[in-house]
């Protein structure tokens, strides 16, 4: 049986879907598993019992990647917290000249990455910050080239975001394609999905009015992939969006993947309300069941077209992260040495070294597998 085209024909899934028929959800799940889900179907899935969604999603993941769960030894380089975009959900950014604003020099940012490589043997750096129009493209070229040179190319650069790249295009008076080519040639290996939030212009006007439209985010990601770089895709949920807008978000990502084929992974984050403007209007984060359903629905809708779904523990906590593995997630993410953004939002981060991540995955009943930036398994020694 094909692990994509014929996934809905699996005998175990058929037995699960027989029970879904009793709830009137069998046809909806069949359409999703055949790659034909509509926004209305996805909204209906949110009303399904979480254990049913989990059973379907976990079986799909078992057919795709078995019981193996990936993780990566990495760090986050938040090179600046200066940002002029001012998203209402962000607790990290500071305006220029704010007393708490900081910006690392390119050499210092690279040196910290190299130090982490020497100390922890990281395989990836997530290189992200705010949007500071005073930072030229040469800053990133200098930092990226230094990282590659000093680590012998061993550290992959998962760098920037759509909004950072779009602003670089504006201040550099270059096309997005030209910016991406220069960053790629300097050493950038892939681009995170940050800035997607919810791909609805109504939502974006409320939570991040200075960011580009949903269509522009998609076009920028298309350009990035056309230049040969893979990406990850995200969704920040649990604020002002409707279920219909969540559904459209997932479908837009699926359509993007079908056109370009370079989305490596999907990550769902619940909105964290502490220490930000939006949180004063929405004081409570979405609950654990909402994360489990979102992860499961993403797996059911994406099937194997977006192969890797991360556990989402970063905002939800490690216990709930373990639970998402039963709901179709098959990647834990990274060790995240150096993360500064979430502590600003009141989210305490555990010190997750390789051994503790492996223990968490084993405890949940799965096999941990260390991977690289491109989701390929690697041996611990290299």
UniProtKB/TrEMBL annotation:
Keywords attached to this entry: 4Fe-4S, Iron, Iron-sulfur, Metal-binding, S-adenosyl-L-methionine
Keyword Secreted: no
SUPFAM superfamilies the UniProt entry points to: Radical SAM enzymes
Binding site for S-adenosyl-L-methionine: 89, 197
CDD domains noted in UniProt: Radical_SAM
Residues annotated for (3R)-3-methyl-D-ornithine binding in this entry: 161, 262
Pfam family, one: Radical_SAM
Protein name as annotated: Radical SAM core domain-containing protein
Organism of derivation: Aeropyrum pernix (strain ATCC 700893 / DSM 11879 / JCM 9820 / NBRC 100138 / K1)
């Amino acid at each position: 049986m094909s692990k994509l085209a014929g996934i809905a024909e699996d005998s175990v899934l058929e037995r699960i879907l027989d029970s879904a028929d009793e709830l009137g959800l069998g046809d909806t799940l069949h359409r999703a598993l055949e790659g034909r889900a509509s926004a209305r179907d996805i909204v209906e899935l949110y009303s399904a019992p979480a254990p049913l969604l989990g059973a379907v999603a976990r079986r799909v993941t078992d057919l795709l990647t078995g019981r193996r769960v990936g993780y990566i030894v990495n760090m986050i380089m938040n090179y600046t917290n200066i940002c002029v975009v001012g998203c209402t959900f962000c607790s990290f950014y500071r305006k220029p000249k704010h007393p708490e604003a900081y910006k690392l020099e390119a050499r210092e940012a690279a040196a910290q990455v190299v130090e982490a490589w020497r100390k922890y043997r990281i395989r990836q750096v997530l290189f992200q910050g705010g949007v500071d129009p005073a930072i030229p493209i040469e800053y990133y070229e200098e930092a990226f080239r230094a990282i590659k040179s000093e680590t012998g190319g061993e550290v992959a650069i998962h760098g920037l975001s759509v909004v950072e790249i779009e602003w670089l295009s504006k201040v550099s008076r270059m096309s997005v394609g030209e910016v991406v080519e220069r960053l790629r040639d300097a050493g950038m290996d892939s681009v995170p999905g940050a800035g997607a939030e919810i791909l609805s212009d109504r939502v974006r006007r409320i939570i991040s009015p200075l960011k580009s439209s949903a269509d522009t985010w998609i076009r920028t990601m298309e350009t990035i992939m056309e230049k040969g770089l893979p990406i990850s895709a995200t969704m920040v949920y649990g604020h002002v969006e409707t279920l219909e807008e969540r559904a459209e978000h997932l479908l837009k990502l699926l359509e993007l993947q079908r056109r370009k084929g370079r989305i490596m992974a999907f990550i769902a984050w619940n909105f964290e309300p502490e220490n930000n403007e939006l949180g004063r209007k929405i004081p409570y984060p979405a609950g654990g069941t909402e994360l489990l359903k979102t992860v499961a629905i993403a797996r059911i809708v994406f099937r194997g077209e977006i192969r890797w779904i991360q556990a989402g523990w970063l905002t939800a906590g490690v216990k709930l992260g373990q639970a998402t593995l039963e709901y179709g997630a098959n990647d834990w993410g990274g060790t995240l040495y150096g993360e500064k953004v979430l502590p600003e939002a009141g989210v305490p981060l555990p010190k997750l070294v390789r051994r503790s991540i492996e223990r968490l995955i084993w405890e949940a009943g799965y096999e941990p597998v260390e991977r690289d930036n491109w989701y390929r398994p690697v041996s611990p020694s290299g």
